[in-house]
Hints:
The protein has 10 helices and 13 strands. The longest helix has 16 residues, at 54-69. Helices cover 33% and strands 29% of the residues. Strands 9-8-7-10-11-13-12 form a 7-stranded mixed β-sheet, with helices on both faces. The protein is α/β, with parallel strands linked by helices. Helix 6 (166-175) packs across helix 7 (193-207). The chain has helices at residues 54-69, 84-89, 105-114, 116-119, 134-140, 166-175, 193-207, 245-255, 262-268, 273-279; strands at residues 2-4, 9-11, 14-23, 28-34, 39-43, 46-50, 74-79, 97-102, 127-131, 146-152, 176-185, 212-218, 226-234.
Amino acid sequence: xxxxxxxxxxxxxxxxxxxxxxxxxxxxxxxxxxxxxxxxxxxxxxxxxxxxxxxxxxxxxxxxxxxxxxxxxxxxxxxxxxxxxxxxxxxxxxxxxxxxxxxxxxxxxxxxxxxxxxxxxxxxxxxxxxxxxxxxxxxxxxxxxxxxxxxxxxxxxxxxxxxxxxxxxxxxxxxxxxxxxxxxxxxxxxxxxxxxxxxxxxxxxxxxxxxxxxxxxxxxxxxxxxxxxxxxxxxxxxxxxxxxxxxxxxxxxxxxxxxxxxxxxxxxxxxxxxxxxxxxxx
Length: 282
């Protein structure tokens, strides 16, 4: 199986079987049994996650933001139909409710059927699942409703492009509490340089330069291996100044996290020089 654009690609060998292969009104969803990375979820021939390394992505998408808040009570997830993001969010004992808005029920069906290590929290009573358009859902949300919004969608192109617009992020900011955080998968500064830059500029326009932050992590099965999460922060919060290292260390140990830790939190926001230059003076 090859995830590619016109210039570069990542290939994983699989055993010849396609465990799930259906087309919805939105996209083609498939699950393969890969030879080195376990079961692999793909959407429209792009790798979404594999059993072997999905925790890199899901832990870094969720925990840097929620550890800044420390005790989130109500979190909104846009996308995330594989269940990995809600699995991480539901580790927080302070959580009262997580609302997931996934446009394509087929993704949820596939994950529940074949990827239980990601999807086992779909029956949690704290989860409120909506099969709906995230843009329309946010327009109906009350102002200041959520402590955090986690955007766990596909790349900022094609059908998902509207989820990366200034108007959409404005709706997100309105739906956040006075001290709230938006975390979105932020594309790759190597594989998707233009999308990475444009997303950063859009967040700066909506949240302000000083309240927009980028963190990087290693993702073996995402093209280029380097991926980002971008944060938009509302209120007087900062990824370092409002971070409690001791609290995070205990949390990581108690929950057996495998990628995120208290030292990595601080280091992830230290960007390589070429990445800093990409987002400077926009």
